[in-house]
Amino acid sequence: MIMNEQVRELTSITSGLPTTDGDGVKMTRLIGTPELNMLDPFLLLDAFESDQPQDYIGGFPSHPHRGFETVTYLLAGRMRHKDSAGHEGVIEAGGVQWMTAAKGIVHSEMPEQENGLLQGFQLWLNLPKSEKMNDPAYQEFSVNDIPVDRLENGSEIRVISGQTNQGTKGPVINNYVNPIYMDITLPAGQQFEQTLNSSDNAFIYVIEGLLSVGELQKTITNREMGILGNGDQVSVTAKETSRFLLIAAQPLNEPVARGGPFVMNTKAEVLQAFEDFQNNRF
Length: 282
Ligand code: FE
Hints:
Blueprint: E1 10-14, E2 17-21, E3 25-31, E4 42-50, E5 60-65, E6 68-76, E7 78-83, E8 88-92, E9 96-100, E10 105-111, E11 118-126, E12 137-141, E13 148-150, E14 156-161, E15 180-186, E16 191-195, E17 201-208, E18 210-213, E19 218-221, E20 225-228, E21 233-238, E22 242-249, E23 257-259, E24 262-264, H1 267-278
Antiparallel strand pairs: 1-20, 2-3, 3-4, 4-11, 5-10, 6-9, 6-11, 7-8, 7-10, 9-12, 13-14, 14-15, 15-22, 16-21, 17-20, 17-22, 18-19, 18-21, 23-24
The structure holds fe (iii) ion.
């Protein structure tokens, strides 16, 4: 490595808070909890994983969003989404829906299955003040649209957003916070390295396995999320065959006013969102 590189270390680990949302969907909330309210620009991260239909069958019936983006990434199962702008589709395993709610959308997200495993993530990314009242937009990609780096050491990097050290770029475009969203599978003993902007906030979430992170080799295990501290390099070694997400983006450093499904810069803007929603102005 060159001298001015600094490897990011794990600064904190959370296993989140078991919770339910929507119509009784069981999940673990990793970001958006009393323990970790946000990691600018990330407002929320939910992990859901169950093969018990009663844990997910209720889905997320009609609800609004304003002021940010919701990113759904499915590892297993099928989810149908439908919204007030006439957009409808099904996300399948390996697919991603990157929805820019901006000034407002009312949508539903329902499991398209009555049994079997449903597993995936929902991440909320904040929008800068200047973009919160834009028209809503979608970027949707199925498993075949998402490029995969297959390295000689047997590791695989699925690139939803951002660019790998090998030069592979994910299909999602976001010029607000330039996010990195990668899904990495590492055989036991192998190492993953990725360059990040030193100003990015970054974290990993371990889907399965056991990882050792940075030069301090702090370990993190399955279903844990770890925040990565200062630096411009990520270095992760699999202590057993592992799969994890690496997510990073530029912080906005703007005031955040939250009100359930609305995230604005001031309380008055959140109240306006409630009023607009109640008066069918979405
Ligand atoms: Fe939603």
